[in-house]
Amino acid sequence: HLSIRRQRQMCIRDRVRSDAGLAYSTGSRFTSDPWAVGIFRAYAQTKAGEYSRAMQLIIEQIERMRTEGPTEEEVRKAVDSYVNSRVFDYESKAQVVRRLVQLRFQGRPLDTPEQDMETYAALTVDDIRRAAREYLHPDRLVVLVVGDREQFDRPLEEFGEVDVIDIESGE
Question: How far apart are alpha carbons 108 and 103 in whole angstroms?
């Protein structure tokens, strides 16, 4: 899951922020938990008048990952980025002890990080494509839009059923 998260993050950020210039901050994340099903989320902080373009690009990127998948280069970059970033997990004795306590609490083997590194390093394009088809479902997204509805460039209803929560009235 993590490699998909890293790959997806790069695509959404590149497409929405860098290419289209639509977001102050954007990305995505696939969370995982040893006791529950993970959650995929994508986000963009953008102008109210640009929300629909940013949201459409995010949905298109999710669909692209699901149908086409990443390139070999994208997978290598994502895997290398993840593997290389793990060095910072062991900067102090406290970090090492915290990780060992957490693994013990979760009932996982103490060498789980090393096993994970080997698993990530061995990931292939086909592995990522298979996981994307299984876990990414752009047609089943739950979307949260926060902002002044009067400034939105398109009605929210164009994207599906809408439940409005007015934070000023609490309704």
Answer: 5
Strand partners, 40: 30
Report the alpha-carbon distance of residue 156 to residue 164 in Å, rounded.
10
Are the beta carbons of 5 and 59 closer than 8 angstroms? Answer: no
Q: Return the SS3 of 24.
A: coil
pLDDT at 16: 53
Which among 41, 59, 48, 31 has a CA at the least distance from the CA of 153?
Answer: 48
Q: What is the pLDDT of residues 136-153, one digit of tens each?
A: 998 898 888 888 889 998
Measured distance CA(100)–CA(97) in Å, rounded? 5
Please measure the distance between the N-terminal and C-terminal CA atoms of the chain and give it in whole angstroms.
37
Reported as a single tens digit per residue, the pLDDT across 54-88 is: 888 889 889 988 999 888 998 888 888 888 888 88
List the Cα angle 55/57/63 in 5-degree steps: 105
Nearest to 112 by CA among 123, 100, 122, 97: 100
2-12 vs 51-67: helix axis angle to the nearest 10?
140
